[in-house]
Automatic annotation (TrEMBL):
Organism: Ornithorhynchus anatinus
Record Gene3D superfamilies: Tetratricopeptide repeat domain
Swiss-Prot/TrEMBL GO biological process terms: protein ubiquitination
Start and end residues of each stretch annotated as Disordered: 1-111
Name of the protein: E3 ubiquitin-protein ligase TTC3/DZIP3 domain-containing protein
Domain of life: Eukaryota
Domain E3 ubiquitin-protein ligase TTC3/DZIP3 residue range list: 261-375
Composition-biased stretches (Basic and acidic residues): 26-66, 88-110
InterPro entries listed in its UniProt record: TPR-like_helical_dom_sf, TTC3/DZIP3_dom
Amino acid sequence: MKKSLHEKKLTSDCGSRGPGFCPSHNPKETDNEKRRFISESKDHSCHQKRDIKVAPDVLNSEKQESPSEFPAGHNQKNKGKAKTSSCDSEKTREQLSSKIDSKSNYDKQKSKSLNATQKVALIELTEMLKSLFQDGYTALMDQRYRGAEQAFSQLLNILDPKELKQMNLAITDYLVIIYGYATALLGIGQPEGLSEAENQFKRILEQYSSEGYDCLAYYGIGKVYLRKNKFSDAIYHFEKSKTMIKFIPGVLVWPTTSEIIEESQSERLQSMLENYIEECKFPPEPDAVCSYQNCHGHSKIQIYLTDPDFKGFIRINCCQLCKIEFHISCWKKLKTTFNDKNDKDFLQDPCLTPDCGGIISKIIIFGSTGQIKCEFEHKVVKERDPPRPVVKQKCSR
């Protein structure tokens, strides 16, 4: 019974191992094969265990040097070096961290000091701006135009239109500074200053037209031309300013003050414009009129003693009561056609007026102050007609 069971087991094992494997039916051979099979399985499991145990050693051997490769003394020295190097690295880290901390503290203190310095500088700058505003508009009101020009010029140099908010200022404040600067130049009245004033008023039109104060710019340009005695150009700009009064957004004040700019009040500006327009419609008689045909070097032939570029003029009279006048520069150009004769040599020459048979009898040169600089005269004796004979009539009784 046991034998049959054993055989069955073997046959089942034979079937499980596959069709090519079948154990012998000899019981001894079967036992031997059985032992061999068990020993092989043990060896195989032992090898697996060894592989599993060796794996950690292999990993450790990669990280550390093998004791078989170096002597024991060498390993102890390496351990000592590793300890000292780790201590040094720790000290270095501590030093670096302390340096970083000190640097961060220094940066914080520096930023605080910078912020404090900036605040102080901002306060000082604000005070300086207030002082310049005060100086500028008070000088303008007192007609001290050079002082006003200096104050407003400094303000324009200091302020940047893009950084007005930092100074608690608006665009209209900057516009007022430009207007004050141009008005001061207009008050000084020098030719170069008048040209610069016109440019500043035009700057308001070109760059700040959206603020709604074009009427003040046209008003200023009109005053520039009026100062130059160019009445037709002045009246054009005054009329244009008059049409824009209704668009003034509000009354302007001098920055950092409560002082109102007179021209920014609609009613006041209207009255001023009407007076200037009336003056331009009926201008005063000129002091002289240039007779040179090629008078292109000057903007107008009319000569006023109040012209900003007035340098004097020359007046020539003839015996037939002709009177002709020239700008000094025009007279010099005319003399080149007469071989640059001296002024005095023109006396007794034919009159320069066409269709006049008289001769030049007097030459008067006016200087830049409007006073007579020199005068040349040749007295022409008029021939008298022979006296008529007197007929005595007898009285009849």
